[in-house]
Design a protein that fits this description.
Length: 464
């Protein structure tokens, strides 16, 4: 073999090796992400245990699906992409979607007085509209709260008729309709009842024909005063006496909840939002994603800096559009977020009641290299001084937030742990907050209603 041939052969081998490495790099990255996500939904101290199914999506296509834990501990049935979960309030966007399909066809209007369809409701100080039910500004009382106040501790034993009867008995609303925001399961139960009466079909049947069948969501369905078939769904669990106990105490009627949902079906839903548009048409999307307004025309504030659309909290955080909702029953915890500007979405469905799903969602997004909107982008570190407080704050990042050591003439409790648990870009301890700023040498500190004070970084040697 000549030197020229040997050199050409070596060059080909090098090119092939580079190409192979280029192919392997994304695979290694995906495996690393999957491992981080699995760690976020695993508790090593409990085996076997319930757990979560995680889905990540980009441009309507699934990028990762990770399942950890069991749908049924006794039967050792593992969670997977087809496991059905009681979706709790994740259901609300599907209830709103059912109404939106009727609105888009002209069969219903957001401005309609609900008594047109529900004459059993009393006539209140101001008319309640369909839009007020959808956007939680109706003042209609919470149906699950009413059932519990009436003496039914396990709402899973109530029928839809029981909940509706209590709503129809209410002589007034919690406030003048259209003037305030207050999250209400009762409002969404009434919205589902309106869909039923306008469509002429049972709500579960209409949702199946108008939403699930067109989207290929083969497994998902709304409950209609019956329990799901045994063995077909993930049980909910809560810790009890060092083990896990089943708590399938969720309502068997639909509207505010009631959806049985799998992650694989949620993937089909995501595809339609981004690319399919069979149900999420342009007209329907405008209804679902329009922020609600009060009667005076001002935007709804949900108390967390977002507005509310069709069963979804929505708005802007960190300069990015956010669409988010959580779901919670006694033994189920779910979280779902879309970032429309990035065309990415993340979902966590969990069947254990002792976990906070939004924390799992944040960990999933961090593992995916995506910043959770509203969380602090940086954790300030070092020594900061306030002449106005005559105090120094030494900040040390921790897994959960910040460890703050206070030095002043008045110190009684010198070490405080602040947590980054709220979605507002700040660190929290009771009524006290620390906010990073665009300048890494300055932080803002606030307690209760006391105005923010600026603390400025100082050299460590001044604290010696």
């Amino acid at each position: 073999m000549t030197a020229a041939i040997r050199k050409q052969s070596a060059r080909k081998i090098a090119v092939a090796a580079t190409a192979a490495l280029a192919l392997l790099a994304p695979l290694a990255s995906a495996q690393s992400t999957r491992a981080e996500i699995r760690a976020a939904i695993t508790e090593p101290g409990h085996v076997p245990a319930p757990g979560c199914v995680v889905g990540t999506f980009e441009r309507g296509s699934p990028t990762l699906l990770v399942a950890q834990g069991y749908a049924d501990l006794a039967a050792r049935r593992a969670l997977d992409g087809d496991s059905l979960f009681y979706a709790a309030s994740i259901s609300k966007q599907f209830t709103a979607l059912a109404a939106a399909t009727l609105i888009a066809k002209g069969d219903l209007s957001l401005n309609d007085d609900v008594r047109t369809y529900l004459p059993e409701l009393p006539e209140y100080d101001a008319p309640v509209t369909v839009g007020m039910l959808m956007h939680h500004t109706s003042g209609i009382r919470d149906s699950l709260g009413l059932l519990r106040m009436a003496g039914l501790s396990d709402v899973g034993k109530a029928a839809k008729g029981d909940a509706l009867d209590l709503l129809f008995r209410q002589r007034d609303t919690q406030f003048t309709p259209g003037t305030r925001y207050r999250y209400s399961n009762g409002g969404y139960l009434l919205l589902a009842e309106i869909v039923e009466r306008v469509s002429g079909q049972a709500f579960a049947d209409y949702a199946r024909h108008a939403i699930f069948a067109p989207l290929g969501m083969r497994s998902s369905f709304f409950l209609a005063d019956e329990s799901p078939r045994a063995g077909s769904y993930a049980h909910g669990y809560v810790p009890e006496d060092g083990a896990f106990a089943i708590r399938d105490s969720f309502p068997r009627f639909s509207g505010s909840g009631g959806l049985m949902l799998s992650m694989n079906d949620l993937a089909r839903y995501e595809y339609d939002i981004e690319r399919g548009h069979r149900v999420w048409t342009r007209e329907v999307a405008q209804i679902m994603l329009a922020p609600g307004r009060y009667s005076d025309g001002s935007l709804i504030d949900d108390g967390a800096g977002l507005s509310y659309g069709g069963g979804l909290h929505l708005g802007e955080r960190d300069g990015r559009q956010v669409v988010v909702h959580t779901g919670s029953a006694q033994a189920f915890r779910h979280a779902y977020m879309r970032l429309p500007d990035q065309k990415r979405a993340f979902a966590v469905l969990c069947n254990r009641g002792d976990w906070k799903a939004i924390d799992r969602l944040k960990a999933v997004m961090a593992a995916s290299g995506v910043h959770y909107p509203g969380m602090p982008r940086t954790r300030p570190e070092g020594l900061f001084h306030s002449a106005e407080l005559n105090a120094n704050y030494r900040l040390t990042p921790t897994d959960k937030g910040l460890r703050v050591e206070v030095t002043s003439p008045f110190v009684e409790a010198p070490v405080i742990q602040f947590y980054a648990a709220d979605d507002d870009g700040r660190f929290h301890h009771k009524t006290m907050t620390i906010a990073p700023t665009d300048d890494p040498d300055r932080i803002r500190v606030k307690r209760g209603t006391t105005a923010d004070l600026t603390l400025v970084r100082i050299a460590e040697s001044t604290d010696k």
